[in-house]
Amino acid sequence: MKNREQNPGTDRRTRYTRSVIRQSLLTLMQQKPFAKVTVTEICRLSEINRGTFYLHYYDLEDVLDDVIKEMIRDTTQVFDHVMCPEKSRCTYPFCRKVQESREFCILFSDETASPRLLERLCELSKEDFITRLMQNSLLSYEQAEAVLYFQMNGCLAINKRMLKNNCRDWSRIQQAIDQFIRAGLESYLIRDGRQSDQIVNHSEK
User: Fold this and answer.
1) What is the pTM of this model?
2) Under 8 Å CB-to-CB from 186, ≥6 apart: which residues?
3) Which domain holds residue 189?
């Protein structure tokens, strides 16, 4: 991401303006693909001029990246969610946030936003996931990376399908998927003669 916000202590007006711009993009994406949204439309809906837009963002891709960043904020990574022994103590799972935040659903069906979302999720999880999996198994870097991308693509695909079908039983589906992923991860640890507690304990820290 390359947006112009540099200072975490950005003033309230700046945060508000950026929030309005992000919301305007999501609103317009309900009507048309991201590729057809223009800065002019964003400015009109946000009731700002182009100068104000470019004061906060470089371009529309920059806004989209910020929307995705907001979407995955406060969500957990793969190990910390799937391998956590007490779900009530775990951080917020990404898939559940998607199901409960309907405004973000459009990102899964948009041809531009969907791959950017997947890329961002993989970037967020890659270093931690691969490092921890390699430390607790005999997998190579390439194998661990393949497992990550397989899992992330599957997460994206199932979210698309559940949203398209207006699924009302997401919690049970999530439990089944979590069990499947956990069993797969643990099979590598067992093969290495180690205990899954190593990763579980790490996720509690």
Assistant:
1) 0.71
2) 196
3) 74-203
What is the SS3 assignment for 95? helix
> Look-up: residue for tokens 């806004």?
63
Residues 92 and 153 in one domain: yes
Same domain, 98 and 62: no
Domain boundary among 53, 70, 87: 70
The predicted structure's pLDDT at residue 184: 84
Q: Which residues neighbour 158 within 8 Å (Cβ) at sequence distance 6 or greater? A: 95, 173, 177
Q: Is the pLDDT of residue 10 over 70?
A: no
Say yes or no: 60 and 116 in one domain: no
State residue 77's pLDDT score: 55
Per the rule left: phi > 0, alpha: psi between -120 and 50, beta: everything else, 74 is left
Summarize pLDDT for 73-114 with one digit per residue, the tens: 766 554 454 444 444 443 445 666 566 666 777 888 889 998
Candidates 15, 5, 18, 34; CA nearest to 117 is 34
Q: Is there a single domain that holds both residue 79 and residue 164?
A: yes
In total, how many domains does the chain have? 2
Residue 88's beta-bridge partner residues?
A: none
What pLDDT does residue 100 have? 63
